Amino acid sequence: MRYDFSATEKKWQARWAEQNTFATGTDQNKPKYYVLDMFPYPSGSGLHVGHLEGYTATDIITRYKRCRGFNVLHPMGWDAFGLPAEQFAIKTGTHPRLTTEINISSFRDTLKSMGFSYDWSREINTTDPGYFKWTQWIFLKLHEMGLAYMSEIDVNWCEELKVVLANEEVDEKLADGYTVVRKPLRQWVLKITAYAERLLEDLDGLDWPENVKQMQRNWIGRSEGVEIDFELRCHRTNLRVYTTRPDTLFGATYLVISPEHPMAEKLATAQQLTAVKAYIEQAKLKTELERTGLQKDKTGVFTGSYAINPATGEALPVWISDFVLTSYGTGAIMSVPAHDSRDWEFAKKFGLPIREVVKSPHDVQEAVFEAKESVSVNSSNDEISIDGLPFKAAFDRMATWLESKGKGKRTVNYRLRDWIFSRQRYWGEPIPIKHYEDGTMRHETNLPLTLPEVEAYHPTSTGESPLANIEEWLIGSDEHGRYRRETNTMPQWAGSCWYYLRFIDPANAEKLIDPSRERYWMNVDLYIGGAEHAVLHLLYSRFWHKVLYDLGVVSTKEPFQRLFNQGMILGEDNEKMSKSRGNVIPADLVLSTYGADAVRLYEMFLGPLEQVKPWNTNGIEGISRFLSKVWRLVYAENETSLRITEEKPGHAVLKRMHKAIRKVSEDTELLKFNTAISEMMVLVNELHKAGCYSREAVETVLLLLSPFAPHITEELWQTLGHEQSISGAAWPLFDPSMAKDDVVTIAVQVNGKLRGTYDAPADCPKEQLLEEAKKLESVVKFLEGQSIVKEIVVPGKLVNFAVKPL
RNA sequence: GCCAAAGUGGCGGAACUGGUAGACGCGCUGGACUCAAAAUCCAGUGGGUGCAAACUCGUGUGGGUUCGAGUCCCACCUUUGGUACCA
């Protein structure tokens, strides 16, 4: 009897659904384990083998943990608001809801045919009013807490298309010949910067890949520096700059402010005014990309004004340049061209003086010297000297001096910016805010505030979302007067910021989440997803979670205790899978050819989970062979009768078996599925070789394999007479004494080169190992005529003789 | 440029805290079964020299530490991911 994967997989998937096999356990006395996938955006192109990698990994862990006695929460849902469905609607008039529904049902089918053991009764969808009611609720809380505010923000505005573009879209539109300008629009902004310090600090306690933590640290970009006031010569105000190198103050030879700096125009002298105005105007036309992107050539204009260097008393010219960012620090810098490459470049271009104040190994007129591992020079006046001091000491003395003179203040700065939270789109959560005629704003308390039906999905000519065209929805009145609704919607990130909480209590109509369930299930014990979310999604989620923590909605400071990034699966040509390359391997295709168990095993066998690796359809044949070998542990070839025996396995087989239990258990815990599978292959090969079809051994194989290949093992488990699902069976335990070798092969080396091996008992004492080694024929000839300088014995491993010619 | 990770057979990859490099799988070669094929099974499979026993080289490159290095240290090269004037 041959294994028919197609019929078997269908049979068990139907039975699992019918019997609710994977319903989440509710007995709170049992230990819990929460395994979460990054839920997908249900796109129209369906799932390919790359998408299934992470889901397979979490499913293996889920099934494994269940067998180890945990209540496991393993849910799935849909991040279903988003641009593609809306673009499709603009083109075809199809309602995004319909597109989304169709895509979801195709995604769900594929996931089900992989045999994933999700608790489908907890499925959530971010576009479901019952869900986004709470997304809106969180937004209102953010607003109450002063963490959501409106501000004029520059957006990428395309004149011809009358549309706001996302940063990612700008390049492509420019290439098509459109013009994109920066235009200020009133936007909702979330004050994530208020949580910068906590977001940074709490990273330390997380079991996350080091590179992801590092990326978040870089993104938050904490820096310690000093704000220094420079007196302006012909103005009563000061010019405040931010620097992380106060130790180089003596080397500051000019100042630069950004074109948007409030003082920019005021500082222009009569003579310079025309040039300054022209420069500011020109900067406005440039997009963010043009200003910060590839073009590195420095531009700038002199204001005509001067400021006094508090350390040297010198008058420094004040320049305007767009390389200085308005939104970082004070929007103004002191330039120390000798020790900062940007300042150096600028100074060279405009002929400004360069003065060495940190001892440099070369002439700073020729090249910049930026390293901090040196000491200050030329840095003293009547009141202070930092000459000879290394960076840290020089920094401190200078900062203290400036503070004592009231000219400066130590400051911490973050690179992190507040989060622009509004989109001028239809297919997103409406922001539940009412704007009244008197200019006040109130919350829409009747949540959820749902989307109205619209005729057309195009943004309006003013750049507002299509919602601005729907009078009935837009305008209303209540006891506070006439109001106009907020027409911006939330970005796609919003729904994914807190979905992991809703899975715990998906149907709660009264609360976002029930506190006792929250306390039982949080945190997420294992969160698996792609590295592309290393910063944004994971940072935004952590931010919302901390806000909910402050609100008392959740009991943990962090949402995801352990994070794991699966590596991408490349196409067979070693390139990223993409439609345009034509190298996409669709999930449904391999599923129908090889079956779910083979696909699951192969995806995991390909290599380490975290690694990027190419798909190779040929390789899956090996897995199919392995599965039929497993099948033949129970059914002999061409036989319908069982070959299983009730005898105890032989000693050698038993040892092999216990070793496999240990290895597979350890590797599964560590998500090292490739080596776990390899170990199972070794065991199965061994059983066939030994002709051992003992029930004890075969059932062990089935149990070990069941999280990986649930269908075939379920079928054979039933064949062997079990009435309960193998998914509920207890994980096998190993006997440590059985999992140990009693005979080991000892390697014998002479001068580190392998010259022979022999078998010895595992606990053989050193002396005896040496004796035996010296007797080996293949070793003796290398010892002849030599004097042994040193004898190294590693029990259970090897013997090495260091020799010298006599 | 900066930050992070990684370079091992024809290919994917394995190798615990330094201890027999190449597990497992793909592919390939030969054989068995068959009228034949598929499937399956058995044997072999890093390079070089050799009839053989055996010897020798070999984990990106060059040095170093060590009885012993894929693994540790230094320098360099390449690839991938992140970031991009953050003062």
Question: In a nutshell, what does this entry contain?
Answer:
The chain has 26 helices and 27 strands. With 806 residues, the protein is α/β, with parallel strands linked by helices.
Describe the structure.
The protein is an alpha/beta fold. It folds into four domains: 21-129 and 495-570, 3-Layer(aba) Sandwich (Rossmann fold), CATH 3.40.50.620; 223-413, Alpha-Beta Complex (Isoleucyl-tRNA Synthetase, domain 2); 587-728, Isoleucyl-tRNA Synthetase, Domain 1, CATH 1.10.730.10; 743-805, Ubiquitin-like (UB roll) (Roll), CATH 3.10.20.590. The chain has 26 helices and 27 strands. Strands 8, 9, 10, 11, 12, 13 and 14 form a seven-stranded mixed β-sheet that branches. Strand 8 and strand 9 (238-243) form a beta hairpin. The longest helix is centred in the first third of the chain and has 19 residues, at 49-67. The N and C termini lie far apart (69 Å). The model has no long low-confidence stretch (mean pLDDT 91). The structure holds one RNA strand of 87 nucleotides.
Spell out the key features of this protein.
4-stranded parallel β-sheet; Isoleucyl-tRNA Synthetase, domain 2; Rossmann fold; RNA-binding; 806 residues; 4 domains; 7-stranded mixed β-sheet
Query: What count of helical segments does DSSP give?
Result: 26
Helix/sheet category: alpha/beta
- Terminal CA distance: 69 Å
List the domain count as a whole number.
4
Using the coordinates shown, work out and report the CATH topology of the largest domain: Isoleucyl-tRNA Synthetase, domain 2
So what's the overall shape? globular
Helix content estimate: 25-40%
The largest sheet, given as strand count, sense and whether it forms a barrel, is: 7 strands, mixed
Average pLDDT, rounded to a whole number, is: 91
Under the CATH scheme, the architecture of the largest domain is Alpha-Beta Complex
Number of strand segments: 27
Our Rg estimate from Cα atoms comes to 34 Å
> So what's the CATH class of the largest domain?
Alpha Beta
**Unreliable stretches:** none
The fourth-level CATH homologous superfamily of the largest domain is Valyl/Leucyl/Isoleucyl-tRNA synthetase, editing domain
Beta-strand fraction estimate: 15-25%
